[in-house]
Structure formats: structure tokens, C-alpha cells
């Protein structure tokens, strides 16, 4: 599978979460890319950047996004229609973001920290409920660093399920 990662607002394309998940994906034989969105803080410009990138490269089988990157991945998924979407503490239903409703209803898994101080976990609960998406609440904050082993295990299992079509 081909996997594209989208980082958060104040992170970069190869932060610790992405490096760890990319290593999991590569060890399973998947190809990975992580786009660099650091030239803009506008989430909708980041969506356009992802869509533009995908016009000129291999279509992603799986989109992975963290925080603002979760919003970017979800909105882009409406057009790209990947086989799966893995979101970590996604910035959904956030004030100031142009999109407050989301049309993609494909295979989605979400991981969010109970102690997230940036994005309320209730936002992920609301989205997961509306789309019947898998939701994993872990004992961590917004960065999910203290639960990275759990997140990596959930990601590896998710990738295997998407690859097998289950």
C-alpha cells in the first residue's frame, strides 16, 4: 500500500509520531510519503497542497493525519477516496476552520488522548459516532507521545486490516 502522512500545525513532516508509524508501515512493505506543510498554517491551503500532490503521484491507499493533518487528510479523502484513513487527535469541528461537516465515510480509525489540551476528545467521539468509525481513546495528551507504543500497535493492526480488506 502507498501511505501519505500529514503532520500537525506546529509539527513537521518527520516528527516523532510520523517517523514511528512510517517505520511500522515500511517494515510491513508499504511505501510512505510525508508532505511538508510548514509554509502555511491555513488548513484549507494544506488540503489543496495534498490534492495537488496526489494529482502528480501515486494515489494513496491510506491517508494518515495528526491534529491539523487529520483535518487535511479527512477533507482530502472526500476527493481521493483512499482505502483507509487513520487520524490522530484530528482537528475536527474546530472554530475558524472552514469545514464543520465531513462527507468521507470510508474505513476510518481514530486515536485521541483523554487528556488532550488542544482538541477536545469529544470532537472525535462525535465524528466517530456519526460515521461509525473506530475510535481509540488513550491515556495521553494531544501529542500522544506517552502512548506512542499503543498508537503504533493500533496503526500496524489497522494497516493489516486495510490491506486484507477486512
Automatic annotation (TrEMBL):
Matching Gene3D superfamilies: alpha/beta hydrolase
Name this polypeptide is given: Alpha/beta hydrolase
Species for this entry: Alteromonas confluentis
Amino acid at each position: 500500500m502507498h501511505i501519505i502522512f500529514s503532520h500537525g500545525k506546529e509539527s513537521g513532516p518527520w516528527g516523532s509520531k510520523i517517523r514511528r508509524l512510517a517505520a511500522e508501515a515500511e517494515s510491513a512493505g508499504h511505501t510512505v510519503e510525508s508532505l511538508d506543510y510548514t509554509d502555511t498554517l491555513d488548513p484549507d491551503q494544506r488540503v489543496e497542497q495534498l490534492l495537488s500532490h496526489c494529482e502528480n503521484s501515486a494515489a494513496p491507499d491510506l491517508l494518515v493525519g495528526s491534529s491539523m493533518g487529520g483535518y487535511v487528510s479527512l477533507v482530502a479523502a472526500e476527493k481521493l477516496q483512499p482505502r483507509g484513513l487513520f487520524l490522530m487527535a484530528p482537528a475536527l469541528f474546530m472554530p475558524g476552520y472552514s469545514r464543520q461537516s465531513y462527507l468521507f465515510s470510508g474505513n476510518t480509525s481514530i486515536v485521541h488522548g483523554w487528556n488532550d489540551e488542544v482538541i477536545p476528545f469529544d470532537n472525535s467521539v462525535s465524528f466517530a459516532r456519526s460515521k461509525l468509525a473506530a475510535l481509540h481513546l488513550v491515556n495521553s495528551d494531544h501529542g500522544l507521545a506517552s502512548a506512542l507504543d499503543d498508537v503504533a500497535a493500533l496503526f500496524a493492526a489497522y494497516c493489516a486490516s486495510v490491506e486484507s480488506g477486512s
